[in-house]
Amino acid sequence: MKLNERSLAFYATCDAPADNEGFLYKKGGRHAAYHRRWFVLRGNMLFYFEDAASREPVGVIILEGCTVELVEAAEEFAFAVRFAGARARTYVLAAESQAAMEGWVKALSRASFDYLRLVVRELERQLEAVRSGGAAPPRRPRALPPKENGCAVWSAEPAAAAAPAGATPGSRPGPEPPPLPPRRRASAPNGPLDSASFAQLHEWRCSGHVPKEDLNIPGA
């Protein structure tokens, strides 16, 4: 694949979020001096600039077929990006803190397509193990809960086995109400008041006379 400077510069400075970015000290190829550069990691490409405001990268490192390892160097928090081969170049970098060094080593170690290929293979192996093991299918979502005042109300309590008699749908469980008092049974028409006419009732009311049978006085 051919890479041109314009496409690399556009990719290095595009608005998409970078995988990692920050200042690192880069050791020169021919000289032992370290230069502070602004590094931007995008995919498997590590760009470095003169400073954070630069719009054109000074160089790029393709992170394929390499290893990232800690090294002892003049600068503290140093690590190296080492490529296989007798004539391959080794890039020695140094971070400004222990946390920054660990973050860069982790990000660079996961940037290559070789690492992604290993991750995909491991996920495929796990998926095949799940399929061969006859795992249970995913549970179906429960029915929608009842609504109160237009809002759904979820409850972590298990549903009751059976709703009590007379309960309204959607009512919440609570203490059982006291039993209703027994109804008063209508008396049979066996007294004079029950069989008297309106005129007789009016006459008895005006005279104050009530038959003894309706007073329910024992022994009367």
Automatic annotation (TrEMBL):
The keyword Cell membrane does not apply. Residues 130-196 are annotated as: Disordered. Residues 172-181 have a biased composition (Pro residues). Gene3D superfamilies: Pleckstrin-homology domain (PH domain)/Phosphotyrosine-binding domain (PTB) (2.30.29.30). Residues 156-171 have a biased composition (Low complexity). Pfam families: PH. SUPFAM superfamilies: PH domain-like (SSF50729). Forms homodimers and heterodimers with PHETA. Interacts with OCRL and INPP5B. Belongs to the sesquipedalian family. Plays a role in endocytic trafficking. Required for receptor recycling from endosomes, both to the trans-Golgi network and the plasma membrane. This is Sesquipedalian. The gene is PHETA1.
